[in-house]
Amino acid sequence: MTWLALEKVFLWFLLYSFVGWLWETVLNIVMKKRFVDRGILNGPICPIYGFGALLAIYALPGEHSVVAIFLSSGVLCCTLEYFTSWAIEKLFHMRLWDYSGKPFNLNGRVYLNGFLFFAAGCTVVKLWVQPHVMDMLDAIDPRTITILAVTLLVVLLADAAVTLAGLTSLNSRLGHAEQDIKALKARGIAHIDVGITAADKRIGSAETRITTACAQIAARAQTDGEALAAHVSHLFDWQQRRLIRAYPGMRTEHGEGLLAEVRAQFDRARHAHTNTSRHRRRRARSN
Questions:
Q1: CA-to-CA distance for 150 and 251, rounded, in angstroms?
Q2: Do 64 and 126 contact (CB within 8 A), yes or no?
Q3: Alpha carbon distance 35, 185 (integer Å)
Q4: What CA–CA distance (Å, rounded) separates 226 from 209?
Q5: What's the confidence (pLDDT) of residue 200?
Q6: Residues 177-192, mean pLDDT to the nearest whole number
Q7: What confidence tier does 79 reach under pLDDT thresholds 50, 70, 90?
Q8: What is the DSSP letter of 78?
Q9: What are the pLDDT digits (tens) for 29-47?
Q10: Which of 56, 87, 101, 117 has the most crowded Cβ, counting Cβ within 10 A?
Q11: Helix or strand (DSSP H, E) at 45
Q12: How confident is the model at residue 14 (pLDDT cuts 50, 70, 90)?
């Protein structure tokens, strides 16, 4: 295979990876009514779709039967998805997706709907889309193909390096977040106990002091909660926060409860930041 042919294959891979990312994005907008970037990488691609398309193209070179391509590509892509899930779990001690609650799943890594979608998508790509993609690239000047492929390869490698670093440190940062959340909750309980004790001592002298003590406790809890939310949010980089939000089925060795708590802290930090920004804008307008 020549360098030019390899460059074209690489561009095929990127194209179908982008189409997969677009599909996931549109699906989430329709189902959840909000934008969710489901790509593991930071760029707008889902590599598993690109690899799946290449599998269908090269593993079934002489096959033209729709049924044979449908069934074969479904098996190939589900095998790829299963191996990808297993590899991520072994390397990074986490699962980004878990289909354990879905019907006809295999160890929570693949399930029937995924098989049907991958099979249908690969069939369309192999029989109808890929010939047009090949004609389109053949019509482009080879030097342009080379420049485009090399540029996108550099960007992809940089993105992959950043993603690898983020995934490698994610588990340890979750551990730090777990310790900090437990520590703050323990301090909050201690503050409540102290406040109640102080209020009890003054109950005979003035009932209003009880109300004041309770208000101080609530204000302290609010301040500590906002500080914790900001701290937890800053423990993770932008990509890690995105992955934790984008994969509700994520599983780690720290348990589901921690991930739910971390997501809640992300939401609280974002809400506090929004309120602060609004307050500053109002103050600026009033001045």
A1: 36
A2: no
A3: 32
A4: 26
A5: 54
A6: 73
A7: very high
A8: H
A9: 998 888 888 889 999 999 9
A10: 56
A11: none
A12: very high
Question: Helix, strand, or coil here: 139?
Answer: coil
As a whole number of angstroms, the distance between CA 164 and CA 162 comes to 6
Token pair 């098996």 in the structure block, residue:
75
**pLDDT of 204 strictly over 90:** no
Rounded alpha-carbon distances, angstroms, from residue 118 to 49, 71, 121: 8, 10, 5
Exposed, middle or buried: residue 231 (CB in 10 Å: 0-12, 13-18, 19+)? middle
81-137 pLDDT per residue, tens: 999 999 999 999 999 999 998 999 999 999 999 999 999 999 999 999 999 999 999
The structure tokens 């290449």 sit at 54
- Report the C-alpha gap between 100 and 37 in whole angstroms: 22
Note the residue count of the chain: 287
DSSP 160-195: HHHHHHHHHHHHHHHHHHHHHHHHHHHHHHHHHHHH
* Tokens coding 87: 């590899």
Among 147, 160, 136, 149, smallest CA distance to 47 is for 160
Amino acid at 66: V
Residue 29 is which amino acid?
A: I
